[in-house]
Specification:
Blueprint: H1 2-21, H2 42-57, H3 82-106
């Protein structure tokens, strides 16, 4: 079973590696397309951009959307106080500890030597 798994892993890594190692026919030296210094076919990129522009322009200009909620004015404070936040945090820690003690006492201990 281990050998079969190893065989599948080798195949899973070797097959894509071999496929990526093959040269791409439209991006090699001697290709018929003119690539810029970054390896991009500018004519194809321009055609794609124009096609997207024509597609989205067929929908027309979007309407102006008004805000559905009123603008909230500041209330004068920056949020909850640090003291209150720390108090809530300490309370949660104590609650978790108390629940842990309660759960530990409610379990019946198992004696390993018996």
């Amino acid at each position: 079973m281990t050998r079969l798994t190893l065989l599948f892993l080798i195949a899973a890594f070797a097959v894509p590696s071999a496929a990526f190692a093959l040269p791409a026919p439209d991006r090699d030296a001697g290709s018929r397309t003119a690539l810029d210094e970054h390896g991009i076919d500018q004519a194809a990129a321009n055609r794609k951009a124009l096609a997207e522009e024509r597609y989205y322009s067929s929908y027309g200009e979007p309407d102006v959307i008004k805000a559905s909620a009123p603008v909230v004015e500041p209330s004068g404070h920056a949020g909850p106080s640090w003291f209150g936040t720390a108090g809530i945090g300490v309370g949660l820690i104590l609650l978790a500890g108390g629940l842990g003690v309660y759960a530990g006492r409610s379990l019946r201990p198992r004696h390993l030597g018996a």
